[in-house]
Amino acid sequence: MKHPEAKQFEVFITNSDSSGYSNIGWKTKRRGEIAYDKNGKVMPGLFPVFADKTEVQRESPRSYAILVENERKAVYNVQSNVCS
Predict the structure, then answer these.
(1) Distance between CA 51 and CA 73 in Å, rounded?
(2) Which residues are CB-contacts of 69 (< 8 A; sequence separation ≥ 6)?
(3) For residue 71, which of 57, 59, 83 has the smallest C-alpha distance?
(4) Which residue blocks in the chain are alpha helix, DSSP H?
(5) In DSSP terms, which residues pair with 83 in a beta bridge?
(6) What proportion of the chain, given as a percentage, has pLDDT over 70?
(7) How far apart are CA 48 and CA 67, in angstroms?
(8) Measured between alpha carbons, how far is residue 48 from residues 20, 65, 70 in Å?
(9) Would you give the distance in Å from CA 4 to the centre of its chain?
(10) How many angstroms separate the CA atoms of 46 and 68, rounded?
């Protein structure tokens, strides 16, 4: 399942802080609001980063495949701020 903040044409890249965000090289990167860890807990001080699927797939097909598989495995429960 997609991250609840991801737009239809985006893929979740990573969680980041402000200093790390500037080092993410995707031209289409976008900052979200709520970051979750792998256990579904909110990660204070971090935010999710998204990028256009087309850019990621074109520039790094292997990374794109990994990101899509991770996205497929994630399940988000926005009401309780939990994903699994």
Answers:
(1) 19
(2) none
(3) 83
(4) 18-21, 53-59, 61-73
(5) 76
(6) 87
(7) 13
(8) 11, 19, 14
(9) 10
(10) 21
